[in-house]
Specification:
A hairpin with a 2-residue loop joins strand 39 and strand 40. The chain has a domain of 107 residues. By secondary structure, it is mainly beta. The protein has a 44-stranded antiparallel sheet. The chain contains 2 helices and 47 strands.
């Protein structure tokens, strides 16, 4: 049998007076998915059809199968009242009330042929009045009022085919917000601030005043915006409070859209380019006021930020060209020296800083670094650094942003100062130091920036002065031949950082002192031959009277020691002495 089954009853429903029996018949029929109800007269004529999917649960009177008179509709699933009122031939006709699922009134209105017509009311879901006025063909039509949920009037005026036609809008405090006419997507009239001052007069599109004049609401009545149609486009101007133009360009849907220009408060150009949805989008140029309004950037923009390819300028000269993302340098790029011509850097950027692989050049075009960068710093690679006079200062490797590995350091006269190994900026491992005349000064081992371990020391003429071990930058253990101005001043052994066995000579070459097994009177001299220290030692420790001198020859300290400990001070500041003699 067909799913749309035709059920034929050879009875006249009009003859069934009992609404209870009528309801039973319809209850029986409603068990079908869909069906036809047919009344037979003498000509066996079909009267109407019903689809069960369109039926609500209904209580009331029926006439020839139609709802007629007073009735109620309920939701089938929750059995909640949806409507109560009058019907005619199955349609709402007369006064009626519609309800939300929570039981609150939704509409209270008159119906004709199933549609709202005449005076009526609409309510918020919480039961408060939302609208009262006139309806036609189911829509607001004629005079009416809309209300805030708090109770005040939001709009009062005339409606046409369900939409506002003309009238007044109000703020929650009851003051007028707008007076005028409405059309599809816009309105024409006057808008006011909450303080009653005129805000805009003219034509609104999508809620924005675009064709007309807008004013500041501070009592000055100064112009804030003005717009007009020009060659099929809306052209507008925005103003600062000082009367200077802030923006001039094209608009769409109330936002900057198309070509435009931004200005500083003094009237000088800030930006010229393209806009989309109120923000810089597309090609554009930026100008900076404290650089005499010179061009600082030209390139691509997206969502108001530099995005895509672009160029930066300083004093009118190119300083960068490359890729941008979200306002920052991101991707490939090149930096230039202030002349705008000489290449300074080329490589990768991230978040505005050098990051990734790159090459750096000096202003002579020579490669000074080739490697990796991290957060703007040299990270892993080989590089060079220079003094201000252009001479080489450093030539070596970087690891994790620090000088690490093999390197060379130079004096500013371009002579080699150091070559060897380093760790985290410090000399560490094997290396060589040189005097500023280029002669070898030291070769040996370093630990965290200080001589430590085996080494050899040479005087400024390149003659060997010491062979042995160092500790914390001090000669610790080994054989020494020390010179001053090319003349021998000590020859012997060191132990535990002190002279242990040997002979000392004055500048005339005469014997000055002799020490054996850490015992005897010792003298030390500055490089210029001035006496630095004289005193007695026992078992390698100061014992007895001791005198220390400044570089000028003046006495700095006098005192007495016992077994290496100070027991009496007769002159000077021992603390100063200790600090200045620290290795």
């Amino acid at each position: 049998m067909d799913e749309l089954e035709e059920i034929k009853y050879k009875i006249n429903i009009r003859d069934i007076k009992s609404s209870f029996i009528q309801q039973k018949i319809f209850s029986f029929l409603s068990k079908k998915q869909s069906f036809n109800i047919i009344r037979y007269n003498n000509e066996l004529q079909k009267i109407f059809s019903i689809n069960i999917n369109d039926i609500k649960k209904v209580s009331g009177r029926y006439k020839i199968g139609w709802k007629n008179g007073q009735g109620k509709e309920y939701s089938i699933d929750e059995n909640k009242l949806l409507f109560e009122g009058e019907y005619l031939i199955g349609k709402k006709n007369g006064k009626g009330i519609e309800y939300y699922n929570n039981g609150e009134k939704k509409f209270e209105v008159e119906y004709i042929n199933g549609k709202k017509k005449g005076k009526g009311k609409e309510y918020f879901e919480v039961g408060l009045l939302r609208f009262e006025g006139e309806y036609l063909n189911g829509e607001k039509h004629g005079k009416g009022k809309e209300f805030y949920i708090e109770g005040g009037v939001e709009f009062k005026g005339v409606y046409l085919n369900g939409k506002r036609s003309y009238g007044k809008e109000y703020y929650e405090n009851g003051k007028i917000k707008f007076i005028g006419q409405y059309f599809n997507g816009g309105r024409i009239g006057k808008e006011y601030y909450k303080n009653d001052e005129l805000k805009f007069k003219g034509k609104f599109l999508n809620g924005k005043g675009l064709i007309g004049e807008e004013y500041y609401g501070d009592g000055s009545r100064k112009l804030k915006f003005e717009g007009e149609y020009y060659k099929g486009k809306i052209i507008g101007k925005e103003y600062y409070k000082n009367g200077k133009i802030a923006f001039k360009g094209e608009y769409l849907n109330g936002k900057r859209n198309g070509k435009g220009r931004e200005y500083y408060k003094d009237g000088e150009l800030m930006f010229v380019g393209e806009y989309l949805n109120g923000e810089r989008n597309g090609k554009g140029k930026e100008f900076l006021f404290f650089l005499d309004y010179k061009l600082i950037f030209e390139g691509d923009f997206k969502n108001g930020e530099r995005n895509g390819k672009g160029k930066e300028y300083k004093n009118g000269k190119l300083i960068f060209e490359g890729e941008f993302k979200k306002g920052e340098k991101n991707g490939k790029g090149k930096e230039y020296y202030d002349d705008g011509v000489k290449l300074k850097f080329e490589g990768d950027f991230k978040d505005g800083k050098r990051n990734g692989k790159g090459k750096e050049y000096n202003d002579n075009g020579e490669l000074i670094y080739d490697g990796e960068y991290s957060k703007g710093k040299r990270w892993n690679g080989y590089g060079k650094e220079y003094y201000n006079n252009g001479n080489l200062e450093f030539d070596g490797e970087y690891i994790e942003g620090k000088r690490n590995g093999k390197r060379k350091e130079f004096y500013d006269n371009d002579n080699l100062m150091y070559e060897g190994e380093c760790l985290y900026e410090e000399r560490h491992g094997k290396g060589k130091e040189y005097h500023d005349n280029g002669k070898l000064m030291f070769e040996g081992e370093y630990l965290i920036g200080k001589r430590n371990g085996k080494g050899k020391e040479y005087n400024i003429d390149g003659k060997l002065e010491f062979v042995g071990e160092y500790s914390n930058n001090r000669k610790w253990k080994g054989f020494a031949t020390e010179y001053c101005d090319g003349k021998l001043i000590f020859e012997g052994e060191y132990l535990n950082g002190e002279k242990w066995n040997g002979k000392g000579y004055n500048k005339d070459g005469a014997l000055d002192f002799e020490i054996k097994n850490g015992n005897g009177k010792i003298k030390d001299y500055y490089k210029n031959g001035i006496l630095k220290f004289e005193g007695e030692y026992v078992n390698g420790k100061r014992n007895g009277k001791v005198t220390e001198y400044y570089f000028s020859g003046e006495i700095r300290f006098e005192g007495e020691y016992l077994d290496g400990k100070l027991i009496k001070q007769t002159k000077g500041n021992k603390m100063v002495s200790l600090i200045e003699n620290m290795p």
